Batch of 3 targets.
Target 1
Amino acid sequence: MRARTEMLNELEAADGYLFDLDGTLLSGGALLPDARAMLAEARHNFAIVSNNAEHLPSQIAAMLADLSLDVPAERIVTAGAETLKLVSEELPGAAILLLCSGALSDFAVQRKLVPSDERVDAVVVGRDRNFSYEKLRLAANAVLNGAQLFVANPDLTHPSPGGLIVPETGSLAAAILACTGNVPYRVVGKPEAHLFRRGLSVVGTEARRTIMVGDNHETDGAGAARMGIRYVHIGEHKPSVTPSPTTGNPSLSPQAECAGNTMVRKGRP
Ligand SMILES: [Mg+2]
């Protein structure tokens, strides 16, 4: 972990800040030591930009409130909710096959999307703890029948506090792609641009005057760099890695033709 003073010094001289959530502000449901100080340094000019593909911003705001951290839901941008907003804007009223949490399913209905198992316009993949063979069968066939495939985040796994891996959204999407072969799909979460743009919009600052603070070079760092946003890395120092398809894994091979979308091996939302 970096020295706190060193990191806080780097946060000076910016107009706004984007903070990753897990591994940056929180770990295992507990606040990390620098979280409160970083948010204080940001003086309300910040947004939390998270690849979380399971919870709604309101749920995360409530969780932070339980930790005595007051962050309005409006300042929390999550990959799961943003994916559904994007689908509802691009395909209003669409029938969609949802592989996600109950909270995100409810949000989809609020956005006037119509959850369905067949003849769907889109397949939306989030972190679905109830992922199953049947869901995989439905999703793969829907995509092969022309449904657009939206993936909330590209992370294959993230670490748990106990050291075990937690399967993430990208691994579920990879299973679908293993069935369908080379088809186009859209990734909404980091390192793609969408969440960064939404975060900048929330903060109201220009990219070049904003700092992204994160713990993942592949998602937070690479995505910020593409956007012209300065990146401050906290947590364990890791070599900077350029995301790339995993060779030899047929589930990931379609990447190359998918506009730079990448599945990330060890993401941390
Ligand atoms: Mg993280």
Target 2
Amino acid sequence: MVTVSVDYSACEGCGTCEALCPEIFELKNEKAEVLDESGGDCDLEDAVQSCPTEAISVEGMDIKFERKSPF
Ligand code: SF4
């Protein structure tokens, strides 16, 4: 069981998480909101590692942050 959360102060509204996991994340007012804290069937590790500001946290899952973005 995991709990997904977004640090709104860190989120810059790039939309990557929503593109990867539209059932879990939704952009509202240029911030990602969590629709399903349980994470559903989404590849959360990919979402965490793809967030440019490390704003996504997944409690209960051991994810090492490795920046995938070439930027
Ligand atoms: S990937 Fe990160 S910065 Fe981009 S919208 Fe999602 S939480 Fe915000």
Target 3
Amino acid sequence: MSEHWEIYADWNPWHGCTKISPGCKYCYVYRQDEMYGSMVSSSECRKTGNFYLPIKRKRDKSWKIESGKIVFTCFTSDFLLKDADPWRPECWEMIKRRSDLHFYFFTKRIDRFMECIPEDWDDGYDNVIVGCTVENQEMADYRLPIFLSLPIRHKSIIASPLITALDLTPYLDATIEEVSVGGESGVDARPCDYDWILALREQCVARDIPFRFHQTGARFIKDGKMYYVKRCYQLSQAHKANIDYRIGKYLVPGTVRYEWKESDYHD
Ligand code: SF4
């Protein structure tokens, strides 16, 4: 897949987030901040130097983010975080203005969606893809009925970090464009069992919904045996399993190695 990297871009208008559910326990934002020695608490959300990136131009006046790209949006926070409510309207304006880009964000706060959309949202902007994250059955049963009811043109389910077996069958309707599944990274990662992944794949195949296994996570159980997988192999090992189904248009953001930049921290 690496030959397609050029069609992706990152945009992190704010940085920092508060933990709200079990999937947040070893949040990668907190881990990365610690690794980079950030002096600001990871729970403190602040605008970044990249806030206006989608409408920034190069010297030759062309857009910094070239037309046609899929923009991974707000990957060092949650786009629907309450702390960011005052800043989001400007983001929607930029998203609307750049109708030549596809903006893809993940959220664990899908229950805030209707409070966060712009007035002219109607049945959704066509250039916005929303990934609803679920990590266990309780979160799936709470978030996905809400997600299915929302006016969003492009929907994906992100079952990651997968920390238990899941039954998504009740939620796999034709509006779901992709289910992407992965284990947890980091030294404290909770184990992910390959049987859970295969069961989710079966559920997707039965409904003919695209399925992607994007990463093994650090502790991976296969045939009852636990394997410790180094970060550098977690994506490739999942890819080698070769169990993706009908994957085409979108690359799951979980496969992106985001490189932290100075401008992600400071306004
Ligand atoms: S919602 Fe996402 S970014 Fe926010 S604390 Fe949880 S895992 Fe981290």
